[in-house]
Amino acid sequence: MNDLAGKHIVLGLTGGIACYKAAQLCRGLVKEGATVQVVMTEGAEQFITAVTMQALSNRPVYTSQWDAREPNGMPHINLSREADAILIAPCSADFMARLVQGRSDELLSLLCLARPRDTVPLLIAPAMNREMWAHPATQRNMAQLAADGATLLGVGSGWQACGETGDGRMLEPDQLLHDTIAFFQPKLLAGKRVLITAGPTFEALDPIRGITNHSSGKMGFAIARAAQEAGAEVALVAGPVALATPRGVRRIDVQSARQMLQATEAQAQSAHVFIATAAVADWRPAEQAGQKIKKDGSGDAPTIRFVENPDILATIARGARATSGALFCVGFAAESHDLLAHAKAKLARKGIPLLVGNIGPAAFGQDDNQLLLLDAHGARELPRASKLELARQLVADIARRIGAQRQQHASA
Ligand code: CTP
Question: What is the pTM of this model?
Answer without folding.
Answer: 0.93
